[in-house]
Amino acid sequence: MPTEREFQVAPIVPESVMHNTKALSNLQSLSASIFGVAAGILGLESYSGFLFYFIFTILTTMLFYTFRVAPTSLKSGLGAFDTSRYFRTQYEFWAGGVFGGLAGYILTWTLFYGLVRA
Amino acid sequence: MTWFSKSTTTFGFLLLAHACYSAYEHSALQSHRAASLSSLSATQQQAASSSLPLDISLETIVATVIITLGLVLNTAKLRPIQWRVWAGQIERAGEEGARSSSGEVDKDYVGNPFKLLESRPGFVDIRKQRKEFAEWVKQQ
């Protein structure tokens, strides 16, 4: 964790933090609903459905890293998979959206499961 | 880039809708077949819901990946959170750096945060203005 002293030396812009977090969480919740539709069509049940969700959420985060974070982050000299240019903690980026989209996922999953297998 | 991400997302949704309809038709057909078979011979029991055909499963997964790609490409550009990096980017790029993919400047773009420090009004020659005012009063 960064200390108070480090925040004084390298101040952080709250507006940018909010903007980035909003972009990521919007993407996560929207894509989670789409994954629910896909899982319902495939007719997944119990653990395989949750496994499907986790695999595709990780895929989304990887795509987001590749297209939005990596081009400028690598150019500025940060290592691979280092998101410190745009996000305060690594945990916030890689795991923050996993549980945020779970409710929307289950909603559309059950809905489309019921629709397809009427 | 915006037309690319939008068309990718639309194409993915079309594929997903097609897969959804195919899966629905498949399950309806399966249940119909099972019902007719059981009416023909009561001993022949068949599971009503067999697994989905491979092409529908593949289409669903491909559609999901395509939609995800389109959504990721449609997200807003990120902004650096460290103040020095962010201010340096604004200094170098200006409004161009805050443009979204559709070519408009973001609504919450604030511009140079140090504008107040960088411009200063010049000194006012108050004696000259006072003299001009006095002459103007005399002319009235």
TrEMBL record, chain A:
The record, for InterPro entries, names: Emc6, EMC6-like
Source organism, top-level taxon: Eukaryota
Q: Give the record's membrane topology.
A: Multi-pass membrane protein
- Tell me which Pfam families the record gives: EMC6
Q: Which residues cross the membrane?
A: 27-44, 50-70, 91-116
Alphabetically sorted, this entry's keywords are:
Endoplasmic reticulum, Membrane, Transmembrane, Transmembrane helix
Example GO BP:
autophagosome assembly
Q: Which GO CC annotations does the UniProt entry carry? A: EMC complex
Compartments, as annotated in UniProt: Endoplasmic reticulum membrane
First and last residue of the signal peptide: none
Record-stated family: Belongs to the EMC6 family.
The molecule here is called ER membrane protein complex subunit 6
Upper classification of the organism: Eukaryota, Fungi, Dikarya, Ascomycota, Pezizomycotina
UniProtKB/TrEMBL annotation, chain B:
Q: Which family does it belong to?
A: Belongs to the membrane magnesium transporter (TC 1.A.67) family.
The highest taxon in the source lineage is Eukaryota
Source species, please?
A: Apiospora kogelbergensis
**Membrane-spanning segments:** none
Q: Which InterPro entries match?
A: EMC_subunit, MMgT
Q: Where in the cell is it found?
A: Endomembrane system
Q: Name one Pfam family in it.
A: MMgT
The cellular component terms of Gene Ontology attached to this UniProt record, alphabetical and capped at eight, are:
EMC complex
What keyword terms does UniProt attach to this protein? Membrane, Signal, Transmembrane, Transmembrane helix
GO biological process terms, semicolon-separated: protein folding in endoplasmic reticulum
Coiled coil feature spans: none
Recorded protein name is Transmembrane protein 32
Topology of this chain in the membrane: Multi-pass membrane protein
Signal peptide per UniProt: 1-19
